[in-house]
Amino acid sequence: MAPPSGPTPSSPDAIGGYFPAPDLRANLTSKRLRLQIMYHAFVCTRFPSEACGVIGCEEAKKVYEHVKRCREPRGACANKLCDSTRWVLSHWNRCRQNDCPLCASMLPPPEA
């Protein structure tokens, strides 16, 4: 029997120790980008109406403010970005997995 072909756990296509289908990889990429822009919006010192040069910053600030105030149950909010943003931010706040495929690059540095 021939050895399996395709990505190995150490190859660039291996994400988090498993091999997601292309649609799952796209979903992961989308969530990672959402997390990055939301983090930027959180730390950006410009007012929401001022351009800072980061594409999506102004909208991300509005979504972040909405998510902070929203009390609708999951799936009930009319804001199309509310649920997915809540999920991404909640995951990032709780995750402590150093090799998490979503947020490992955004984890706070380990305490000395």
Can you describe this structure?
- α1 crosses α3 and α2 crosses α3.
- The protein is 43% helix and 0% strand.
- The chain starts with 21 loop residues before the first helix and ends in an 18-residue tail after the last helix.
- The chain is built from 3 helices and no strands.
- The chain has 112 residues and is an all-alpha fold.
- The protein has a domain at 22-95: CREB-binding Protein, Chain A (Up-down Bundle).
- 9% of the residues are buried.
- The longest helix has 22 residues, at 22-43.
- It is globular and about 35 Å long.
Look at the helices and sheets and give the structural class.
mainly alpha
Number of helices: 3
Helical residues, percent: 40-55%
Q: Uncertain regions: pLDDT < 50 for 5+ in a row?
A: 1-20
Portion in beta strands: under 5%
The second-level CATH architecture of the domain at 22-95 is Up-down Bundle
Spell the H/E element sequence. Answer: HHH
Largest sheet: none
Distance between the termini: 49 Å
CATH third-tier fold name of the domain at 22-95: CREB-binding Protein, Chain A
Tell me the Rg in angstroms: 17 Å
Secondary structure: number of strands: 0
Q: Give the CATH level 1 class of the domain at 22-95.
A: Mainly Alpha
Shape: globular
